[in-house]
Amino acid sequence: MPSRKVSEDDSVFSGRTVVITGASSGIGRQLAADMAVRGASVVITSHDEERLRQTEAELRSAGDIHARCCDVRDAAQVVSLVEYVEHTCGHADILINNAGYAVYRPFEESSVHEVLDILDVNLGGAMRCAKAFLPGMIARRSGRIVNVSSIGGEIIITPNAVYCAAKHGMVAWSKAIRYELEQFGVGVNVICPGHTTTRFHEHATFRRRDADRNPHRRSLDPEAVSAAILEAIRRDRPVTYVPAWHALLVWALRVCPLLTEPLWARISRKRINQLYMRMRAEQAPSDGGPT
User: Fold this and answer.
1) Which terminal Cβ of the chain has fewer Cβ within 10 Å, N or C?
2) Are 154 and 250 in contact (CB under 8 A)?
């Protein structure tokens, strides 16, 4: 449900059409509710039609919600999504590229198919959607693309090499097209949230990390991330970190590498060593069992 009180600043959303990918749960779902209650017509998409329809029913009381199944890896489905939005709502004012997933395993353990699929969903899908919606935005000299990246798009987080590559690409691409598209009246924002409590971490491989994760470490909730995204759109912020102090971490790693890199390397190696120890333990035969 909506995460904060509607204010006068929310006129930027009222009467607009917002398309959100990966919106059947987590950050996307929360964004849909928050946008709808602020007067936007919201089109939510997901590759999982059953979960999408359930989310649509749950959010119907929040406002004007429409659901359209779309796998961002499929160019034909993305084109069909654009046609659906134009037929149902007229056009898209704001595109929020939120679809994404990760696995918690090192690069050498991943198959080529998995590597390319992570790149496609997290980066290729966003580009595919942007290319499909951009012609209309450029013709109207109006529109906005919001790309939901990750803190892993600015710093290295092991063992998520491929996910980090995709999210680094999303940050770089967002920064570049912000300059390219401003002449057409199209804004671009990129959001870099930290660890957020969503279904994102339900992949079986994340159980390895959860076993070693500090139980006292706090995670963001989707409401906080959604609120930060709304504020980024209102203020047209090029890059937004959630929580805000992550900006200091990114700055320190860039500006003071002689001081910060050894510490970050130590943290990264510790995570990798813990992972491989757990992997070896999982693969070892149990006592008394077959060898």
Assistant:
1) C
2) yes
pTM equals 0.90
Q: Which residues of the chain have pLDDT under 70?
A: 1-8, 199-217, 285-291
* Contact between residue 93 and residue 133 where contact means Cβ atoms under 8 Å apart: no
What is the spatial distance between Cα 123 and Cα 149, in angstroms, rounded to a whole number?
A: 9
Locate tokens 């109006």: which residue?
142
pLDDT attached to residue 11: 86
**Rounded distance between C-alpha atoms, residue 181 and residue 205, angstroms:** 39
Side chain identity, residue 137: M
Are 266 and 222 in contact by the 8 Å Cβ rule? The answer is no
User: How far apart, in whole angstroms, are the C-alpha atoms of residue 123 and residue 119?
Assistant: 6
d(CA 262, CA 278) in angstroms, rounded, equals 24
Among candidates 261, 264, 220, 217, which has minimal Cα distance to 241?
220
The string of pLDDT tens digits covering residues 7-62 is 557 889 999 999 999 999 999 999 999 999 999 999 999 999 999 999 999 999 99
- Residue 207 tokens, joined: 């159980």
Q: Which residue has the tokens 């070693």?
A: 212
Q: What residues does 187 pair with on adjacent strands?
A: 144
- Residue pair 38/113 in contact (Cβ under 8 Å)? The answer is no
Domain boundaries, the chain: 8-251
**E strands, the chain, where?**
17-20, 41-46, 64-69, 94-97, 143-148, 186-193, 239-242
* Annotated active-site residue in 84, 104, 163, 241: 163
Domain 8-251 -> CATH class:
alpha beta
Residue whose structure tokens are 């333990």: 281
Residue 163 annotated as catalytic: yes
